[in-house]
Write a structure and sequence with these properties.
The complex is a heterodimer of chains A (288) and B (406). Chain A is mainly α. Chain A contains twelve helices and two strands. Chain A has one domain. Chain B folds into two domains: 239 residues, Response regulator (Rossmann fold); 129 residues, Rossmann fold (3-Layer(aba) Sandwich). In chain B, 38% of the residues lie in helices and 22% in strands. In chain B, strands 7, 8, 9, 10, 11, 12, 13, 14 and 15 form a nine-stranded mixed β-sheet that branches. Classes of the chains: A mainly alpha (288), B alpha/beta (406).
Amino acid sequence: MDYVAVISVEVVYAVASLVLISAGLAIVFGMMKVINLAHGEFMMMGGYATITAVNYGVNIFVAMLIVAPLVVGLIGLVVERLVIRHLYGRLVDTMLATWGLSLLFIGLATMIFGNTTTGISTPIPGFTVGGYQINGYNFFIILVSIVLLVAMYAVLKGTRFGLVARGAMQNPEMAAALGYSPDKIYMATFFAGSALSGLAGAVLAPLVGLVPTSGGAYIAKAFITVIAGGPSLIAGLMSSAGLFGLVNQIFTFAVSPVMGEVALLIAAVILLRLLPQGVTARFLKGKM
Amino acid sequence: MTSNRRSFLASSAAMAAFAALPTSTLAASKIKLGSVLDTSGIFDAYGKPMDMAMRLAVSEINANGGLNGQMIDISAYDTQSDMALYSQYGQKLVRQDKVDVVHGGILSASREAIRQTMRKSKTLYFYNVLYEGGVCDRNIFINGVTPAQQVEALVPHAMGRSGKKVYILAADYNYGQITANWIRKYVADNGGETVGLDFFPLDVADFGSTIAKIQKAAPDLVVAPLVGGAHLSFFRQWAAAGMKDKIPLASTTLGVGNEHKVLTAEEGNGIMVAYNYSQELDTPANAAFKKKWADAYGDDTNFHEIAVSNYQGVMMWAEAARQAGSVNRDEVIAALETGLSIEGPGGKITVDPKTHHATMDVHIMEFENQGMKVLETLPQRPPIDTQAVCDLQANPDDNTQYEIQI
């Protein structure tokens, strides 16, 4: 019974961490159709921003939830102004440009922080469930993911900015005709996407040993989750992260962590064969 | 860590084909020491201190009047963590620079990229990194510890302090698999039982489910030959789950890339390891070495076990050249094969003539406040894994890396 509880927590945690690492990309790719191959490096920079801030004496929660998203969001803003805005609508060119950016960020991080592993310890102690110890930090990640999804929904559905942003993504000319500048909306959206990537990197930082190349570990999973999710931003994210997280953890517990990864990828291949446009192109159509 | 650091050997010395030259021409020339190391790129955390150690050793020899009255010249190349550059610079060292000895290579892949070049050109080669064992080649000398040397010491000690049921977590490539086999063997030999074994690709950074599985198996001890930055997450998540004080941990890899300084004291304290070197070794040789390092580089903590190993490799070669009275490859090999010893920062190191590996002290240590406290020293452990498959005295033309069957 305790073991079942432990497994359940791990499954929910796996889903939550997929949501977290994919959220920034879902906005940048899902809404703006910009293939951001530097997504992993935005996360890596979020991690370094957190560690640096903590080393300067900033409270760890402030560092993770405020400093890191702001820093990475601002970096994203600069990147958008200098590079991305010239490339909207040119899918292949943005891939090339953001891949170059990812190499640049890895190089810069190596120059600044060195090519060695760094890290901070988790701020929340573990606790006991029956005969088992559980990492208390898992619950923090689950909480952050839930808040994130709710906040995204509230902004997109409930605010004027969300409405305008969705409109501009669907039909920029019409938005412009109504007096909104698509250029500014894209800029703000890219900022939000980058900030979410930074948040994900920051929240995951205490669980890992961070190196400048850490971003590479996240990028594939993030793209698979976003693409398999399909056109609806939040429903897509939840459905594909839920499916992949569940499959991954079932095979991890039943067989081995390697099989967990394999099962996740096989599930993605099968899913995209059956639903090439993603889950939400068939189910939950028209949802957020 | 750094990822594949297990397969790093770092000192190789190549002696060029000097044998044919008359001594009169040698008198004017200098001795040439070749070095190929990754001093940039993703493996530079290993390569840079190794390069510093090699330069420290050479400047020390030159300051003491050189080798047999001749100064040593360094020809060093940065392979930029790119395996293809090893072949290229290896060729350059033997053909263009015509060096007398090559020290270098970090990953096992880099060693294998240049080993045959050195052998064909009869250039003596030193590889000075801990690695998976099994290389059998008369032209190479290896000064790093192999899995059996560590595991033979570490497992009985750790089991003695915890219990008989052992869970193994290993990196999923040749080093991890070979080491896991040795751990299983020594667990069984010491009357224990391996209750679980999991392998992890080098990019796995999430160990939550594994930690739950370990608790279900309820072992007395976890042995973790995990490798690299992503795998460091295990030790962090283990501590975060509050497991650290419940089940003791041991590792054959943690600390080689100075990981004990990355983990906080609360995360690291109590983890058991076994190596040839620790900065906390309380011996006159180590104190002298740390002073020399600090004088040369201004900091006596920015190096690790494989840098010391590289230093010891250069010193071993120099001692053999002194005894041979020459840097001629065959004469130096003959001197090394007498079972030559040197006293290095990590203790006494002796060439094992049968395998060209090293018999050395293995220190059992425990992480304590981001240092490695030496608990026990097992003197002069032979490379038993490679000895089981390799005999260069009976079989001098052997040129194989054996996979050791246990």
